[in-house]
Amino acid sequence: MDVDVVNMFVLAGGTLVIPILAFFASFYMWPAAIIHVYNWYWRRRLGLQVVYSENRGYRFCYSHRGKPGPGRPTILMLHGFSANKDMWLPVAKFLPKHQHLLCIDMPGHEGTSRTDARDYSIEGQVKRIRQFVESVRLTKRPFHLVGTSMGGNVAGVYAARYPNDLCSVTLICPAGLPTESPFVERLRELEKDQELSGSLDPQGIPLIPSTPEEMDDMLKLCSFVRFKIPQQVIVGEKSRHSLHENMHLITVPTQVIWGKHDQVVDVSGSSMLKEAVSGCQVDLLDNCGHSVVMERPRKTAQLIMDFINNQHNTGSNNSKKLS
Hints:
Elements lengths: L2 H27 L1 H16 L2 E7 L2 E8 L9 E4 L10 H4 L8 E4 L17 H14 L7 E6 L1 H12 L4 E7 L9 H16 L14 H10 L20 H5 L7 E6 L9 H8 L4 E5 L6 H4 L1 H26 L1
Parallel strand pairs: 3-4, 3-5, 5-6, 6-7, 7-8
Antiparallel strand pairs: 1-2, 2-4
Helix pairs in contact: 1-2, 4-5
């Protein structure tokens, strides 16, 4: 083979190998930067814009797209512990492009203000979300609230506290219920260690891995984690069963979506909600764990929109009967 031809293949191979090696080196050295670029790309592709809202000295960060319109309520989405607003990107991909959508960073997460532990309790987060709702004037018309895991706990308590704000609510594998799971067992172990030692080692928290082995265990539980915030969110909450204590107060149309193989919050919680909340609709997903949003984004979006549309059609039919 001609020497020039060989050199050409070597040069071409080198041209391909260098960027590939650079990518993997960047991924291992600066994984957060890669994730941010990835999320930035998908936000742009999906038409989501990041906005900051200042209210009484507190800063909220959220992404949004679309505008409110007749017959379609705004959707406000609350993420789970140690995630952020971008965890909803896979679901947003399958929601109607004209749908008015807001995805907020929960208190102490990503771009939203970090203050003291009171804001990280469920009651504290409910108050902050209400503050956000007022600051962006979502109170003008009832909106649909969606929350997953910790965000589902907050959404459920919010629905109990502020029913006039909402037209309906979707709770996805919500925390705040007295269920048993591998995750709950680990929390109990942490509490016992805390009582014996008088302090809490944050490296022992299941959602904050510090070794490859702990990362593997965490992924088996719920499949995602990115940011560390004070452990009071997970351990030290005065009432870890806040949703259970408030679910009988929920009067708005309620949808529950749950993965049948959830190892963080056991699926038996769906039965508790169905019994306590009048007319509660329960959708259980086969071959799905705690991270429903990540594992089944298309199905999640479909279930949410079907529920919203059914509620709207039911309301329209009732109005026609009254007239």
